[in-house]
Design brief:
The structure is a homodimer. By secondary structure, chain A is α/β, with parallel strands linked by helices. Chain A contains eleven helices and 13 strands. In chain A, helix 5 packs antiparallel against helix 6, helix 9 runs parallel beside helix 10 and helix 10 runs parallel beside helix 11. The longest helix of chain A has 16 residues. The first copy, chain A, is elongated. Chain A starts with 9 loop residues before the first strand and ends in a 6-residue tail after the last strand.
């Protein structure tokens, strides 16, 4: 492995699945810092992780992480990539983690947000500051405006506003960051299934004749939950999101600008143009 | 067809799919009224409809309905059985319906509630009063308490309260009447897909290891939307709901007592006992 990364202040990246960790590491390098990848076994993609200085850890190995991070000189850590809530039996607990287990057990009984707050407190117990993506790689966020050639219509903008209100209403319940609204009808609300599953459901309902709005209407909207700890879990989109939205017969995809992560922005824009749908970054307070 | 029904005040029943129209017609007969079934073509089950005096109508044939209802002497009409939002191309419009189309078109752009309010106003335009199930067959509602041998635990009761809050929060958006909560985590929120699809999703997520709460935890909760017009669209459960909840690995099913319709109550109770899960009617204001 040719390590071509700069010698600046090292940054630990705890990496879940997908291509996003690679995009973030690139941005970190461009800003003159040295990424140290900690791939989560069973989640992270070796092809992405092994491009940089890296270690493999299991979820729950806080002690191992802290020893390795200290040896690498990392005083800050960034969490990247959605890690699905693990089963207890998938956890490989080490002693440092077990010391904070009472806290973690409480966290597991809550939703994502309390789980993640538990993770943050574990990190702090090891003397490593948890940083947010906005601090180290703000260019990974969707900007305001259309990403490709297509723009939402007024009808689409009304659907976007309604979907943002649905997501906001569910905020207190620590659930979904996404909803699909078509012609003012809420077709789907995301909970544990994830965005791709939700879009697959819309495609199925259309095939069954159970979505009456015609192909080319409806919007997938993603936004962070109001209460969300943005150091951990922000909504994200990639080319697959756009392709699945097109397969679901939607008019486009809207996400909150500045708080939704985009993996492979150029490919997202190209995928939107190919599918003739819009992808747009909207202000978080869009509503009417 | 042997018509063994009493000669009392006739009642028009506009019937969607499933066995519920039959259960309601039985209750109407027990109360001494004469049911006249209007089966919706493409939705209603002939085996159910043809047990009683009956006619077949298409969605949108308001004029035909009024002529037939008048000939049968029906001054009241009951709508039974969820009719999925029809595609415009499935509608067989007649002139009386077309006269009220501007109203209906507005209704189609809203959610279910506005669509149904449009239907009510069409019925009123024909001089037929729309009655609710609570007026003519209150015995089709789930009573308070457990239907079978099994009871919810305290943990289940907390999940039930949370799910009721989720459903209430979505009230303004005219969406789902159901949610699944397990160990305080909102696993699924129902929108256009229907309850059986939602439960199938939970079963899939469990197989994929994406539901961490063990088999035997989690509750399906169904409740009417706060704004719902109860003359049309109330939540309902039947034996299949219980079987699907068991397949999804849930601890049980909770529905609002007095406002959730139960088809085949004895079979629901037997299915719950066979699957070793609870089915319980809870007060609508259950929360803590």
């Amino acid at each position: 492995m040719a390590d071509t990364t700069p010698g600046g202040e090292p940054l630990a990246l705890i990496c879940g699945g997908g291509s996003l960790p690679g995009a973030v590491a690139e941005a970190v390098v461009r800003r003159g810092r040295r990424p140290v990848m900690f791939g989560l076994k069973g989640w992270a993609d070796a092809k992405v992780i092994e491009q940089y200085a890296h270690h493999w850890i299991a979820i729950g190995q806080a002690g191992r992480f802290f020893r390795l991070a200290q040896a690498e000189g990392c005083r800050e850590v960034l969490f990247i990539g959605a890690v699905l809530r693990p089963r207890i039996t998938q956890l490989r607990l080490d002693w440092q983690t077990i010391r904070v287990m009472p806290h973690l057990a409480r966290a597991f009984r809550g939703g994502d947000d309390t789980l993640l707050a538990g993770v943050a407190s574990i990190a702090e117990s090891g003397g490593v500051r948890v940083v947010g993506l906005d601090e180290v790689a703000p260019e990974v966020f969707v900007p305001a405006g259309a990403l490709g050639r297509h723009q939402p219509s007024d009808r689409d903008r009304a659907d976007i506003a309604r979907a943002l209100k649905v997501i906001a209403a569910l905020g207190p319940f620590d659930v979904g960051q996404a909803a699909v609204v078509a012609n003012n009808n809420v077709l789907a609300v995301e909970a544990a299934e994830g965005t791709d599953n939700m879009l697959g459901r819309i495609a199925d309902l259309r095939r069954q004749g159970r979505v009456t709005s015609p192909v080319g209407t409806g919007v997938l909207v993603k936004a962070p939950k109001p209460s969300q700890d943005r150091r951990f879990d922000l909504p994200s989109i990639g080319p697959r999101t756009v392709e699945n939205a097109a397969r679901a017969g939607l008019a486009g995809v809207a996400v909150t600008a500045g708080s939704t992560i985009i993996a492979e922005a150029a490919e997202v824009s190209a995928a939107a143009d190919r599918a003739k749908i819009f992808v747009v970054g909207v202000p978080e307070d869009t509503a009417r």
